[in-house]
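Here is one chain, start to finish.
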Amino acid sequence: MDSHAYRHRHLLGIEGLTPEDINHVLDLADTYVEMNRQAEKKKSLLRGRTLINCFFENSTRTRTSFEVAGKRLGADVINMAVAVSSMRKGETLIDTAMTLNAMHPDVLVVRHPESGAVQLLSEKVDCAVINAGDGSHEHPTQALLDALTIRRRKGKLGGLTVAICGDVLHSRVARSNIWLLNAMGARVRVVAPRTLLPAQVEHLGVEVFHDMAEGLADVDIVMMLRLQSERMHGSFVPSTREYFHFFGLDEDKLKFAKADALIMHPGPMNRGVEIGSTVADDIDRSLIRQQVEMGVAVRMACLELLTRELGNGPPIK
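Its structure:
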């Protein structure tokens, strides 16, 4: 496989990636899905490399997924719980970057509550940086794992109609998925109350709906989003019970989608708030468990591609 097919030093977002970049990651991740299902799951590809998970926000799922991915490739993996370290003592992001840089890691995986913080940090270190979620900006590996999940089940991304439903306003997952799905030729809808949509969201290249029946009509994929109450300052929804009544996915609302429509959720799920247990656990239509499995494979692919560049001369911006 041509290592120059992915010519980026970092993975900070989906915006800016070409369809070729995206397919290159997904094709490599496909090979890791099969490897991860075997008894022997370990490679020595990243032996001698150091991966630091630097999470300024809690995230058990994403951090664990990156940790498993790094260890399966043979890397030394260090988890930094920044919330209980120097940042609490007043250390700035730049100070943290300088400290981390002095340890000579090969890859930093960073999650931060402020949009743009990961890019700022990437400009201050010498290693590859992966954005594991910054504020409400982007979460690129989530969009890539969602794309791999869809592609493996549907055989394609182009030509599909995908409805992204719920708290789009606060969702970095929604933004990364919108960029990726549009780049790959899918048709994207967002379905949400007006209070949970960004201003001028249609400029992102999506169709906007405020009613689940209309928004889910004949869609191939229903992607539900978590109601992010921790990011809400003020009243965005009257109550969780009322929110579920109008915008939560249940069997009745799912009937408006295609008969073979599939259900996704980036997790963690608020059952009975944005999704009902019956549809979340539907063994035929729910892809939620597959998303978790694809997450490890996609993150392994990203780690391989970004560390390949370390041996290919000057870093590619």
